[in-house]
Amino acid sequence: MHTTRPIPPAKPSVPHPVSLIYTIYRHGARLSEREALERAQATASRLGLSS
């Protein structure tokens, strides 16, 4: 069996949920870094995930 290692957050300067959402927007939707971060922060806030 393989051991799993946690994947480091894409944006270490932001809370982990925001970082995960950022990764989806940045790479999945191919948005710019700034736009992906703005949308990730807004989405996390709407979902009550940001601290």
Describe the structure.
InterPro entries: Acid_Pase_AS. Helix 1 packs across helix 2. This protein has 51 residues and is mainly alpha-helical. The protein has a domain of 31 residues. Helix content is 53%, strand content 0%. The mean pLDDT is 84.
Could you provide a short overview of the structure?
This protein has two helices and no strands.
Strand and helix map with partners:
Layout: H1 16-28, H2 33-46
InterPro entries: Acid_Pase_AS
Low-pLDDT residue spans = none
- Helical fraction equals 40-55%
SSE order, one letter for each helix or strand: HH
Which structural class should the secondary elements be placed in? mainly alpha
Count every beta strand, where a strand is a DSSP E run of 2 or more residues.
Answer: 0
Mean pLDDT: 84
Radius of gyration: 12 Å
How many helices? 2
What sort of overall outline do the alpha carbons produce when their principal axes are compared? Answer: globular
Largest sheet: none
Strand percentage lies at under 5%
Report how far the terminal alpha carbons are from each other: 36 Å
